[in-house]
Amino acid sequence: MPFIFTKTLRQFLIFSAFALIAAPVTGADVLFAPPGEDKVYELWEPAPAPNSGAAFVEKERREYPYDHDWEYWSYPLGNGHMGANIFGRVDSERIQITEKTLHNIGIYERGGLTSFAEINLDFEPGEISDYRRSLNLDEGIAHVSYQRDGVRHTREYFMSYPDRVLVVRLTADTKGAISFILKPKIAFLDQADRTGTVVASGDLVTLAGHMPYLDINFEGQIKVLNEGGSLTSATTSGGSQIKISNADSVTLIFAAGSNYELNAQRFESYPNNKLNPNRFPDEAVSATIQSAENKGFTTLKRRHLDDYQNLFGRVSLKLDSEPSPLPTHELLAEYKDGQTDNWLEELMFQYGRYLLISSSRETSLPANLQGTWSQYHYTPWTGGYWHNINLQMNYWGAFSANLAEAFEAYIKFYEAYLPVAEKMATEYVEKYRPGNLSEEPGGNGWIVGSGANNYYLPFAGWGHSGPGTGGMTVKLFAEYYHFTQDTDYLKEIGYPALRSMSRFFSKSLQPQDDDTLLVYPSASPEIKVNDPEQLEGIENAGTIMDRGYYRTIGATFDQWAVWEVYEETLEAAKVLDQEGSFTEMIEAQQKRLDPILIGSSGQIKEFREETHYGSIGNPKHRHISHLCALYPGTLIDDAHEDWQAAASKTLDFRGNDTTGWAMAHRMNARARLDEGEKAHAVYQKLIAEKTTPNLWTLHPPFQIDASLGLVAGVAEMLLQSHEDYIEPLPALPKAWSDHGHFDGLVARGNFLVSVEWSEGQATRMAVTSRAGGECRIRYPGIDSTSIVDGHGRPVETSSDEPGQIRFETTQGETYHIL
Ligand code: FUC
Questions:
Q1: Structure confidence at residue 31 (pLDDT)
Q2: What number of H helices and E strands is found in the chain?
Q3: Ligand 1: nearest atom to the Cα of 464
Q4: 88-115 pLDDT per residue, tens
Q5: Helix axis angle, 556-576 relative to 495-508, nearest 10°?
Q6: Is the pLDDT of residue 214 over 50?
Q7: To the nearest 5 percent, what fractions of the chain are helix, strand and coil?
Q8: Residue ranges lining ligand 1, Cβ < 6 Å
Q9: Are residues 57 and 66 in contact, defined by beta-carbon separation less than 8 angstroms?
Q10: Tens digit of pLDDT for each residue in 337-368?
Q11: Band of the pLDDT at 269, cuts 50, 70, 90?
């Protein structure tokens, strides 16, 4: 299923962006070093992260705990399964570990992510100088370097996906200079929700325990591999440790696991019968450690780099930027102070790609609300999969930013929860639309509600989110196909998911007197009416539910979701030649949805009964769910200029004073409208107001969605392809326009695209066809350019109208637009 990124493709890619052009084209073996590409993407600081300890949390933000040191200053590493936060300290180093399956009861008593372990490395005091720590994004490696009493000490940290371990390597420029005490702890062992032991024996520390609530058995092991010097281990009731004395170098290998298995049973009942209490992760964790030990540090590092760089290295970017010499917190402080810097904007994009690679891999669980990182006993919002925007936002950028494999984590998750999602759809139809009930298994489609986690799937359609959450989710399944063109996937997974969601939607619609079909019951995620007086005088007003949530009929979000899912289902059916009575039925229904209405203020209405802008709900609300029809949807498109104008106006009304993720959504929406300056302005605001010195982004508190959503946003400003054409530079803001390029972004149809620009105009463009098929490009003046293939042979093109061309492509071939 995953597409393969071969060396030849990479060569094509580098070649295509930077080579040739005026000179005769000689073939893919011509390689030019990309000019000015010797830059290093890194976060760095001249001081260790502050640390008040795991137990020290503040409670300010909506009563959620937060650890300022961890959230602002530590560097995150991850391999999808685990996360590690590195503080880089020289007195007592703190490495905090998260393992995605470790959950306690959580703040809503439906399960929630909890921290796994705290590993300290206690060093002797000494005279420290010349300190530097960094997180190198080109390598996926954190570094610490300093002089202690005249000896240079260096550390490297990486989280390997292929070997499923965290590796920490300590070296010094003087033999025998490395001494420290390794003190691992099970996080929050003083809390009643877990028991466990930490046993140090020889060169190994084992942290093993049990969490009765979900029957979790967990285990972590740390192996110490020293060259030179000696080890002494001690296990006492006060803690277990290994003392490392006078080593030349030390490698620490950490692995962890639990008895969690991803399958339908996880979601069946709550909270009982979740896991098999007689299964223990000991054997698997021991085998992982053994296998990593056998490989040794050099091999582990090479395997990590091969794996990581194959993903990270796919996109090169230059946003008219020069690398900054400043430490990251100073760069950010200056930015917040108004000295905006394109380098930081470029770095945030690449960092978002790094965070996605680190938190979502083919065999891991998906990226959750905090990616894969939590230092908390009770993670804010449970650290779950919030399906009323956050989860989807995590993956919006995956496809265009050339990381489609990251979404496979979610596909596996979906396959596991599907039987329960189908049962819930049946319950839903039974409850609200009993006349439409099908008795067949899966016959009512599937649904997914908002606050899911690894052990729990919520019902959709309560007051705070309508059935559209499932529609917004399955849209990602369609995008996976558009970007990869993987028809086997479409046949086996994508189309069945779309078709089944369409089936559910077809049952949730209620015919109206005016012949429209409206979703009932329906809601726009999180919209509340706090004062019932607001609804006075509004004809056909909905109902105020528990806690103020507003329930209605045919909210724009739900109507859009039905329209979009029908559209994708119809398209997929055509690709697979599966059209028939079902597709005819939904095609007929799609025409009766009347999804977009314009209100008296010229706004896109969020609710059909809405009059002027803001007449229902909070006019400054963070959610802009009705504008999902614009992004990630395709309903508000170039064929509907009036809707686009209304969407722009709605964004103006809503404003940008909002949470981190909500800014990222606005950025994408503005990009879709080709409003480059406005997209850029909200991006700048996200960096200035919601970004921490470790470049994480905040709701607040910390959530991963804005960091991943902005990846989609930047890509959307540079390249679009949702309207059947590849459109380079649709929303290039002035600040980036003098000179820049991108190389390796992906367009629908699975075209790898490279563009160079100068003074706001594309000056070179190359497209590598990864799946064959027709390539269509829209760009002013493109119909008067000529196109050659990778061998310099002219390519025949045709043009339907000015500014557009189309031509047939051969899989694997690169086309240069001159
Ligand atoms: C949605 C949002 C909140 C928050 C939560 C995790 O409910 O409305 O702002 O991001 O998810």
A1: 27
A2: 18, 36
A3: 7
A4: 999 999 999 999 999 999 999 999 999 9
A5: 140
A6: yes
A7: 35, 25, 40
A8: 369, 381, 386, 388, 390, 526, 622-623, 659, 661, 699, 703
A9: yes
A10: 999 999 999 999 999 999 999 999 999 999 99
A11: confident
Minimal-distance CA residue to ligand 1 atom 8: 526
Atom from ligand 1 closest to the CA of residue 369? 6
Asked if 608 contacts 540 with a C-beta cutoff of 8 angstroms, the reply is yes
Closest ligand 1 atom to the C-alpha of 526? 8
Residue with tokens 């529609």, as numbered in its chain? 471
Query: What would the mean pLDDT of 67-75 be, rounded to a whole number?
Result: 94
CB–CB of 524/559 below 8 Å?
no
User: Which atom of ligand 1 is the closest one to the Cα of 450?
Assistant: 7
Ligand 1 atom 11 nearest Cα: 386
Say if strands 316-318 and 204-211 run parallel, antiparallel, or are unpaired: unpaired
For 561, the token pair is 């979701």
Task: Give the Cβ contact number of residue 215 at 10 Å.
Answer: 18
User: How many angstroms separate the alpha carbon of residue 384 from the centre of ligand 1?
Assistant: 11
Q: Answer for the pair 563, 593: CB distance below 8 angstroms, yes or no.
A: yes
Report which ligand 1 atom has the smallest distance to the Cα of 623. Answer: 8
Task: Please report the DSSP string for 311-329 in residue order.
Answer: HHTT-EEESS-----S-HH
Tell how far CA 542 is from the center of its chain.
34
Whole-model pTM: value is 0.95
390 C-alpha to ligand 1 centroid (Å): 7
How much distance in Å is there from the Cα of 387 to the middle of ligand 1?
Answer: 9
**How far apart (Å, rounded) are the C-alpha atoms in residues 96 and 684?**
31
- What is the C-alpha to C-alpha distance for residues 244 and 690, in angstroms, rounded to an integer? 41
Q: Of 262, 289, 452, 285, which Cα lies nearest the Cα of 364?
A: 262
Ligand 1 pocket: which of 381, 464, 620, 704 to mutate (most atoms within 8 A of CB): 381
Distance 584 CA to ligand 1 centre (A): 37
Q: How far apart are CA 21 and CA 17, in angstroms?
A: 9
Q: Closest ligand 1 atom, CA of 703?
A: 10
Q: What pLDDT is recorded for position 444?
A: 98
- 367 Cα–ligand 1 center, Å: 15
User: Which tokens sit at 249?
Assistant: 């170098």
Beta bridge partners of 719: 728
Helix 676-690, helix 328-336: angle, nearest 10: 120
Dist CA 245 CA 226 (whole Å):
10
Residue 505 CA, ligand 1 centroid: distance in Å: 24
**Residue 147: Cβ-neighbour burial (10 angstroms; 0-12, 13-18, 19+):** middle
User: DSSP readout, 669-703?
Assistant: HHHHTT-HHHHHHHHHHHHHHHB-TT--BBSSSB-
Task: Output the CA 526–ligand 1 centroid distance in Å.
Answer: 8
Mutate to test the pocket of ligand 1, among 374, 389, 618 (most ligand atoms within 8 A of CB): 389
Higher-pLDDT residue of 461 and 18 is 461
